[in-house]
Amino acid sequence: MRNTAITAAIALVAGFAGAAAWDFSGLGPDRTRDYLMTNPEVLPEAMAELQRRDMMERVEPLRDELELAYPGAVLGNPEGSVTLVEFSDYACGYCRQSLADINALVALHPDLKVVIREYPVLSAGSADAARMALAAADQGKFEEFHNAMFAQDGPSAEAIEAAALEAGVDLAAARNGIEAGIYETQLQNNVFLGQTLRIRGTPAFIVGKQVFDGAVGMDRIGEAIADARES
């Protein structure tokens, strides 16, 4: 069974990522299979690199659009030289778990711009909270609402209102914008970007040449920020 699994993995790597396998083995294509059979421990690393390259092929044509925030929907330095994009959902427990890490990274890196892309895929309440977040951004209250919303148990109507009030959002103005549908295009565009990039869930982070799924912690994202700054 183990040999069969290795052979299948080799076929995948060699068949769909010959260049990646060659890079990792340091050998010509005729000897790559023998190398991988002898050193199967490189396969997970090779597959991870293949997935990263595949994702970058989708990211690069969209990078300018990805890094262009909805006005005000930014954490950290709006003019920062390093951009971290986060796909986020207010019903996502892992997004809530990551909030402290992102806030800590903002404090550590004065040149960091965090673009929050509202990606309300988990519940109807997610979409309602995302609309209120964009309304808060219009009023210069995005960060306050973002933090207050994640302090709630979830995006119920009562929780959204409580977070908005805590953030100092003008609810009447916000509801007028929401009812007029002025945030729908932005939310639809975020979903389009997420689907195009094959974002599987939230949170998802993109910085430089790295993409992370889930609450991966501030150390891994911090290393990617440093790499992006140097590239």
Explain the overall architecture.
The protein is an alpha+beta fold and 231 residues long. It folds into two domains: 2-47, no CATH class; 67-230, Glutaredoxin (3-Layer(aba) Sandwich), CATH 3.40.30.10. Helices cover 61% and strands 11% of the residues. It is built from twelve helices and five strands. Strands 1-3-2-4-5 form a five-stranded mixed beta sheet, sandwiched between helices. A hairpin with a 2-residue loop joins strand 4 and strand 5 (210-213). Helix 1 (2-16) packs antiparallel against helix 3, helix 2 (18-25) packs across helix 4 and helix 8 crosses helix 9.
Outline type: elongated
Poorly predicted spans: 1-22
Name the helicity range. 55-70%
The CATH topology of the largest domain = Glutaredoxin
Structural class: alpha+beta
Average pLDDT metric: 87
**Second CATH tier, the architecture of the largest domain:** 3-Layer(aba) Sandwich
CATH class category label of the largest domain: Alpha Beta
Biggest pleated-sheet summary: 5 strands, mixed
Total domain count: 2
How many helices? 12
Strand order of the largest sheet: 1-3-2-4-5
The H-and-E topology, N to C, reads as HHHHHEEHEHHHHHEEH
CATH superfamily of the largest domain: Glutaredoxin
Strand content: 5-15%
